Amino acid sequence: MESVECSLCHRIFGDTTLLSLHHEFETCSKTSSSSSLEANYGCPLCNEIFYDPLVLQIHVNEDHDHLSVHRTTATTTTTASDSLHAQELERRERMKNQYQQQAISEISYEQLQEGEDARIARMLQEEENAQSFEDFQNRYGGSKRTFTERARWNLDKVYKKKFISQKQYDEYKNKLDEMVAQPIERLESRSAGIIPMLSRLPMGNVMDRRLCQPGCDHVSATWLDQGWACGYKNFQMLLSSLRHDPQYSMHLFGHEATNQTNRDIPSVSYLQKLVETAWTAGFDSEGREQFNKHLTNSTKWIGPTEIMACLAYFNIKTELFDFHQPKTIDKSIAYKYLFEWVRRYFQQQPENRNNIIHPLYLQHEDHSRTIVGYEQFRDGNIRLLIFDPSSSKCNIEKFCKNPSGEAYIFRRNLHSFQKPVYQILVVRGLLTPDEREAAKKVRSTKVPIPST
After folding, report:
1. Which of 45, 61, 254, 348 is the most buried (most CB within 10 A)?
2. Is 140 helix (H, G, I), strand (E, B) or coil?
């Protein structure tokens, strides 16, 4: 396989896909590429040889993707390609998350001035990067570990690396079940006040910037739930915004939006129980069967359909939209119509009844993220502003200290949208009695591609 070199930092990558990921997620720096050429890795499915384990992962995900487990859901368009579901996305997300953290793992811990959770999360990521592909495949291709078991596994890895003392290990181990079962999301994962900081960034060549309501928090994965809970984290981001809206706060939190004494967000464990409650009430029965009627204390992935079912149970209306890559349009601008759709959504603010615009849940075939706004340049080009649960609390804190220099972690341009299908989940108000019954069957709508 022919390698490619980054023209900025001269790192060597196994193919253009890795180079593209490098440009999207990493800041170029001087690194040595020799280590990636020292070992060969064989594909366990076709025996093809690779010298970079990340290239091997991409090869398996792309060339052997027919082995994925596909989950079907009723959609407005009935073809299988119209459905994106969390269970078939598991292996691909691993690859991007590992690659995104690759540069982080190269930094010595002595140089990091950050909290214990962020440091442990980095330690775990470094450990996972060093695992063989066989272990990788066993853990993430069909892992049956419970939430508690996975958290204990994480803790053991941290201890074996001697990153924590025996006393700390015993302390965490003794209270691990309590930490997993806690109903409220830990403050260690949450970052408030990011939206106002984004709104105050210098405009430069940007002529228009629109953002969701300022109360939306960023929620990062921590060592307790790292590697499998992105759907839950994005759900938490959406809930952090909805809690400020009087139209939804009483339904979700049992208090008025003006009551700021309760800023709690449900934990991952609590959200699992809420989804199961929605299933029991008849929402998304097909999805319930796909999960074998069980979600609590599991590491099963959720996607937009589970969030739709949960919100519908609380009488909140949502819509799910599918955006497909146009085959007749150049790949670099294929999703311009998605960016335009997002722009129109955030421009509705003056017409919104409560003058509140909530973020958008974004699902694609290797990850889920949260769209919190957009920026439009004077030449008409648009870039999206996105909260990614893979962004560590440490990186968010760096942004808070230097907003202009670190804002790139939230910005995504059109070129970075390269997947065949994207889905966007939108909150649309409250359900009428008739709509509530119809909402028990989850559907999505394919957004038509504008004629050129």
Report:
1. 61
2. helix
Overall domain count for the chain: 2
- 84 in Cβ contact with 355 (< 8 Å): no
Measure the CA–CA gap between 35 and 51, rounded to whole angstroms.
10
Per-chain mean pLDDT for the chain: 78
Across the range 291-313, mean pLDDT stands at 93
Q: Which residues pair with 361 in a beta bridge?
A: 370, 425
257: pLDDT strictly greater than 70: no
What is the extent of the structural domain holding 9? 1-67
Find the mean pLDDT for residues 220-247.
91
The answer to whether residues 321 and 445 touch, using CB atoms and an 8 Å cutoff, is yes
pTM exceeds 0.90 for this model: no
Residues 246 and 392 in one domain: yes
Stated as kind and residue range, the H or E segment containing 445 is strand 445-446
Whole-number Cα distances in Å, 431 to 41, 288, 312, 437: 53, 21, 8, 9
**Together in a domain, 206 and 345:** yes
Strand partners, 42: 49
- Determine, yes or no, domain membership for 419: yes
